[in-house]
Amino acid sequence: LLLIFLTEYAEFLHSKGKKFTDFDEVRQEIEVETDRVTGMNKGISSVPINLRIYSPHVLSLTLIDLPGITKVPVGDQPPDIEQQIRDMIMQFISRENCLILAVTPANTDLANSDALKLAKEVDPQGLRTIGVITKLDLMDEGTDAREVLENKLLPLRRGYIGVVNRSQKDIDGKKDIKAALLAERKFFLSHPSYRHMADRMGTPYLQKVLNQQLTNHIRDTLPAFRSKLQSQLLSIEHEVEVYKNFRPEDPTRKTKALLQMVQQFSVDFEKRIEGSGDQVDTLELSGGAKINRIFHERFPFELVKMEFNEKELRREISYAIKNIHGIRQVLPCLFTPDMAFEAIVKKQIVKLKGPCLKSVDLVMQELINTVKKCTKKLATYPRLCEETERIVAGYIREREEKTKDQV
């Protein structure tokens, strides 16, 4: 058992049971799996490759290696490659329980860092962001990243950590990790700009910081997690007590369960519209927030887009006033005649019909999307889920037709 523990090996989720002890084979397997999922010509995919490393020399951390932002598509990459990669990154870094390692090369302008920009969007207070500066050994002679690493240039709450990784030449030359770590340590100790903070630089220190953050996170969240578990346990015990004398053949039980599920659907739907739900979507607007946006942003925007010719409108008003008077002489007056005013206003109001109908369609579509999200909790009972969605969606469609008639 001791020998097994001391042996370093890796396992892939897509090839369960197969242990890799040669890490050159691990790299090859990653390349093969990447080509299998994305193709042979630089394609992309949001499907992760899951790799687990077993070793006495590593920390118990889950690391997610995300791609850098690609500005120009190459090979088989889609035209909107930049947006796709951005959406993929946001999917992971938006989670409140993850730390963000904003990796930026030292030989580029920190103000243009895509990593720091994305981290700022989801973590404006900097509570989860750690800056990592790489390629310190590749900076032009006479330059350094001292102000960045001292957290003076673009300050982060958790600061910056500098690392020196193996170059492609080192990797091709089979330079092992231990030698790379020694070279990294020597670099920081010997460099005049970094030697005073060498104890706070390097890969081992980054590992230490991550481990400490994990420990702090567990310590901070454990009491709330324990309380939540106890609450759920009490709730389950209460349900067990209620169903202790449950008889499957009792029709009143089935009716009660059905009513409870329908009532829960009603509550979920109402909460999603009013915005008081327990599950908050952090990726996009939905439910009541999206409907509010349709009325207060989209509808005014559609009105602004309407073509309006003031000169033509004045001419129409003039014709309307003259036509109202007929053969009588048109005398200057302070107010527009009622009939002329009504004729002009009616013609302008008709132009509002298009934007109104479009807004109705958008609101109804969002209501139906909300219904579908609420019925997901009924997925255990497909027939009930289908019927609930059909009935509610049908009612919404009926209200849509009435609303359009009123418009």
TrEMBL record:
Classification via InterPro entries: Dynamin, Dynamin_GTPase, Dynamin_N, Dynamin_stalk, G_DYNAMIN_dom, P-loop_NTPase
Record-level GO cellular component terms: cytoplasm; microtubule; plasma membrane; presynapse
PROSITE patterns attached to this UniProt entry: G_DYNAMIN_2
GO biological process per UniProt: receptor internalization; synaptic vesicle budding from presynaptic endocytic zone membrane
Top-level taxon of the source organism: Eukaryota
GO function term, MF aspect, one: microtubule binding
Annotated keywords: GTP-binding, Nucleotide-binding
Residues annotated as domain Dynamin-type G: 1-223
Designated name of the protein: DYN3 protein
Protein source organism: Urocynchramus pylzowi
